[in-house]
Amino acid sequence: MSTPFSTPSSARSRRNRAALCAIVLSVGLGAAGPVAAQLVVVDPTNHATSLLQAARQLESLANEARGLAASPYSHLAENSEALRDMAELARTARGIAASADGLERQFRDLYPEDLSGADLERLLAQGGARTQTARRTAEDVARTAAELERLGRGRERRLGGALAASQAAAGQTAAVQSTNQMLAVLAEDLTALRTIMLAQSRLMAEATAREAADRVTAEEARRRRWSGSGGAPSAPKFDPLPHAGD
């Protein structure tokens, strides 16, 4: 038979649950202010717009990459080879040297400032070596001009190809690539101009140094010719007039 009153244990259980609910509620209300202040509001519209812009940029880059990969023209390998050939012209110079160390050695041997201690044989050898160096330096200039003329024909073809590729470019990246290839051809032209100017400068330096050395050698020869003491000639060892009385 049930009674209208609860047992003491059930009453204590209800009191404990009520106290626990009060504690949880008070903690939740106390922390509600700071948590609400720290929330970040996400705008779905702005987020979707950003994603759409990023997707469009990726698509544009992909199109540029496809256009660049599809471009059939590139002369970078030929350009590099031409630049190497021009550099080789200076390294294979046979006349006046193209390096500072070589020039110093040549000027010391071929164009000395002091000839007072040199004998006639050495002066003759130096003059012959200067003549040979002059010939080889002139040959270097002629060979350089001929080689640059050969490379120049290739540059005209490469420039025409770069112009055609620039006109047919179907994107910013492809257009930039074509422009860079035209700049590479112009760099070849500048390198060729620098190469021939350096060769001509060596020829002019050799001619100036050789003229100065020949002048010094001639002055030294004259000094030695006229520096000897003049005296009476020695008597001949034979009778120049054996039949003068006949």
Spell out the key features of this protein.
single chain, 246 residues, mainly alpha, 76% helix, elongated, disordered N terminus
Order of helices and strands: HHHHHH
Largest sheet: none
Spans of at least 5 consecutive residues whose pLDDT stays below 50 are: 1-6, 31-37
Q: Residue share in helices?
A: over 70%
| Shape designation | elongated
Number of strands: 0
Strand content: under 5%
| Cα-based radius of gyration, to the nearest Å | 48 Å
Mean pLDDT across all amino acids: 74
Structure notes:
With 246 residues, the chain is an all-alpha fold. Helix content is 76%, strand content 0%. It has a domain at 75-224. It has helices spanning 8-37, 44-70, 76-91, 100-110, 120-167, 172-226.
Summary, kept brief:
The protein is an all-alpha fold and 246 residues long. It has helices at residues 8-37, 44-70, 76-91, 100-110, 120-167, 172-226. The protein starts with 7 loop residues before the first helix and ends in a 20-residue tail after the last helix.
Write the layout of secondary structure elements.
Elements: H1 8-37, H2 44-70, H3 76-91, H4 100-110, H5 120-167, H6 172-226
